[in-house]
Write a structure and sequence with these properties.
The complex is a heterodimer. By secondary structure, chain A is mostly helical. Chain A has eleven helices and no strands. In chain A, helix 10 runs antiparallel to helix 11. By secondary structure, chain B is of the alpha/beta class. In chain B, helix 3 crosses helix 4. Classes of the chains: A mainly alpha, B alpha/beta.
Chain lengths: ~290, ~270
Amino acid sequence: MKRSSTLIATLDPGVMMEKDSGEANIFLPRALTVLKGLSYNLLGFTALIGLWYLISLITDGELPTPVATFTVMWELLKDPFYDYGPNDKGIGLQLGNSLVRVFYGFILGALVAIPVGILMGANSFCRKMLYPVVQLLKPVSPLAWFPIGLVAFQSASSATVFIIFITSLWPTLINTSFGVASLPDDHKNVAKAFGFSKWKYLTKVLLPFSLPHIITGLRLSIGVAWLVIVAGEMLSGGLGIGFFVWDSWNALSLEKVISAILIIGAVGLLLDRVFSWMEKKVTYSI
Amino acid sequence: MSAPYLKIENLEIAFDTPKGKFVAVKDINLDIEKGQIVSIIGHSGCGKSTILNAISGMVFPTKGTVVLNGRNIKGPGPDRGIVFQNYSLLPWLTVFENIFQAVDAAIHDRSKAEKLALVEDHLKMVNLWDHREKYPKQISGGMKQRTAIARAFAINPEVLLLDEPFGALDALTKGSLHIELLKMWNLTGRTKTIVMVTHDIEEAVFLSDRIVVMNNGPAATIREIEEVHLPRPRNKKDIVNQEDYKIIRERLLNLLMDKVEIDAKDFFKEQAA
């Protein structure tokens, strides 16, 4: 409490200076705002690391200490792209491999989900026909599809892409169809009154209106896909961050496991940020 | 004079609702001549907009016909420009793009450069050229409606249909938009037929050649048609002092307000409460 109040106190003169001396000091208050935000983050992570340290003390080293973990993490991050043969590759390569799989599955999923979602949103016949199917398949854990993927593609790597595809499908599909279905009559009437062609209707009315919904769907999809890839790769093996976690566990290196957890979290956060930025880009306000 | 330009004959429009058939308007007979400005006035829910939608082709009559220039109306078309009640601009397009996309869709026999010029002309007519790059959310209600009017004129329609176009605007903006509308009508040689739905008596008298007064719905009919013979160009300030204006205004008030007088006993009941 005391901390934040002093921050506000230091912020105020900054705001005053902006008013007084105009543009010259415009960066100072902004920097202070950023600094304030960062200090909250710092507080949160300090608490997390403190708790972690406490648990590792209590469990007498069963859980590696933060210091030990960060040392191992530094080793991992120092040379992320080394390649000492098929079973010993840097964390960057593992991550890259997972990301490539996620993107393949995600892009394929979007390519199917967006058109089908538009169809479901725009056409009540399609909606009534497909909605029960979607309802049935959506709650199934993507991992349950893994054997189907194996049978269909005869390769563990392709099967992983397949489960990512299945995962990515639903949020995008549902959001797209919802977005398209909620297009107001006003906008439809404009298209009708001025005789918009099908193409113009699609590109100037339907898609711009539903784009924010579609991007939200994609954002949810990539989030779930990133969740699923780790589990998928534990099943499939090969090169990837999920397999890396499993391999580290087998090698009894919890330091590596925790490092991977933190890295996975950071990448997930980054992916989310990218889509959230895109969401803001395409959102129009009324 | 030969057959009327726009002829509405025995029009009935009904909608299927969960509670059964709902007749919005019936027995509507109306002849409108080319270049006339006609207002349809009545209380909320009397089916004014429904008649307009039948002319625009957005709804289809359950009985009767709407004939424009000798042809039965079968759907929306670029020969009729519509100004919607709530502006209906596409929020993701700029003012310029909103008009251009409509022009591009409605007009087929012009080059792109000609269409762009058309948009420019009409934006200048409504004094929005400087605001062409703005989005609808960045401009005022009056400017939005000017954009919508420019859009409707830009496709060069034979008939302009305005659905309570100034209903959401304040009195001052409304007044200047009336002038704006008449200016557009004059600039196009008073050849455009304008059908407007409104619930504003002063607005109807100021703009119209004829005023169609509706009964209350459901199953609304035409109660009376008033001819307005005030000379044009009309001036907002002077017109209110003309005897004809006062008479028409009075008549319309009586036609529309007979049901909303306060009864003496209701009034005292309210005071006692």
